[in-house]
Structure formats: structure tokens, C-alpha cells
Amino acid sequence: MSKARTSLARTGAVHFALIAYTLIALFPVFLTIANSFKSRNAIFREPLAIPTPETFSLIGYQTVLKQGDFIGYFQNSVIVTVVSIALVLLFGAMAAFALSEYRFRGNTLMGLYLALGIMIPIRLGTVAILQGMVASNLVNTLTALILVYTAQGLPLAVFILSEFMRTVSDDLKNAGRIDGLSEYAIFFRLVLPLVRPAMATVAVFTMIPIWNDLWFPLILAPAEPTKTITLGSQIFIGQFVTNWNAVLSALSLAIFPVLVLYVIFSRQLIRGITAGAVK
């Protein structure tokens, strides 16, 4: 009986801590989005209140869409993020399959070499990356950002996916070979469907740093046609630092896609994390 009470108390304490952390993490997001739909006077008068018919206002979003090309910034961010994630998942999964399935000389060293990419920040090579992009005439192009983000996301993708692919049954893959499937067919038709939770986990962990990054867009693609939404929001906030309606609206537009992605992939993300912890 005492063990059951102790276990119940521990479970309650863990849930209380998680709920408290969730509220603390979501409170700034809620405050930002709620105040973006309020008039300026209402923001200062009642910053913690939700919008009412008397305080509701879209002036901030109208200012953002009128003064800045946020539709273009959003489009650039979507293109860079989606293409980068697709390349990271494709090449990362193929590399993870090769490292986990085949035994060859240098297999372990190759895995350790890729793991170094997790420990060493890619920003340390900014000067060399910029020189390479200038030599390749890729400055102020979305291609430059896609290449950098793909290289940035591959080490973590290979590390996570290789651990999951080692758990795929060898009997299943050998049965596919006996049936005449090629290695590519085994990879795409048998292995990938079984590691979808891990793929979703990699996609989310890859997407957030890309979407929120300010460093490389500022260095590699600062031109107006290639600005991402994070860079555009930062410049916009600097220009309208006293216009809180516009500032909060710009921030809301920047964080909205991340929230939508998490809502869509939250179940698979949690499954991938918990499965990796169990394994």
C-alpha cells in the first residue's frame, strides 16, 4: 500500500512539474498572439487580458502586410525549410541505412565522423562557407541557405535514424531480397515505413533551427528578394520598435508555422522520442 502511494505521489509530482513547465513555456506565446489582436491602448492597459469586441484590432497585421513583404518572406522560409528537410530526410535516411545495414572498413569511423557534426557548430565555418558561396556565385540565393541547412541537419538525422534502422528485423529485409527486391526497394518499401516516427522526430528537430535561424540568412541571403521571415521580422521590429501592434503581429506570423507543425506531428514526435528512449 505504501509503495502504491509513493508511486502515485511521484507520478503526481512529475505531472505537476510538466504542467507547470508547459504553462511557463506557452505563456509568452499566448501573450504575444493575444496582444497582436488588440489595440495599442488595450495592450498597455490590460496586457494579460484576451481580446474583446471593444479591444479587438487588426491594425498590427495591416501594418505588417503593408509595410513589409511578409508574404514573400514567408514563401522564402517555406521553400528553404521544406526543401532542406526533404534533403536531410532523404540523404540522412540513406546514409543511416548504409551504416546500419552494411559492414565495411571504416564503418565505425564514418559514424564517428558524422557525429562530430552534432558536437561542432556549423557557425564556426561561417567564413569558409561565405567564401565558398561567393566563389560559387550563390550569395543572395535560396540555394545557399538550402545547402547550408542540409549539411547542418544531416549529422543528427543520421545519428537518430541509424539507431532506429538497426531495430528493423533482418528477417524482413532478407525475405525481401529472396523475393527479388533491390536494395533501393527494400529501403523505400520496407525500411522507411517502419521508421516514420523517427523521420517525424528528425523533421521537427531539423525544422525549428532552420525556421528560427537569423545568422545565415543575414550573411548569405540578406537581399530583399531572398529574406526569410525571421530576418524580415527582425528588421521590421527594428524599424517599428515602438509600434507594439506591428511588433507582436510580426512575431505571431513568425511563430505560427512552428506551432502548426508541432500540432500536426506531435503524436509521431512523441512516439519517436519515447521509442528511442526505450530502445
Please give a structural write-up.
Keywords: Cell membrane, Membrane, Transmembrane, Transmembrane helix, Transport. It is found in: Cell membrane. Pfam families: BPD_transp_1 (PF00528). The chain crosses the membrane at residues 12-34, 78-99, 111-130, 142-165, 186-211, 246-265. This protein folds into two domains: 1-57, no CATH class; 60-274, MetI-like fold (Orthogonal Bundle), CATH 1.10.3720.10. It is mainly alpha-helical and 279 residues long. 78% of the residues lie in helices and 0% in strands.
Give structural attributes.
mainly alpha, 279 residues, globular, MetI-like, transport, cell membrane
What is the tally of beta strands? 0
Mean pLDDT: 84
C-alpha geometry: globular
How much is the radius of gyration in Å? 23 Å
Q: What string, H for helix and E for strand, traces the elements in order?
A: HHHHHHHHHHHHH
Q: What are the segments in which pLDDT stays under 50 over at least 5 consecutive residues?
A: none
Number of distinct helices? 13
What distance lies between the first and last C-alpha atoms, to the nearest angstrom?
A: 31 Å
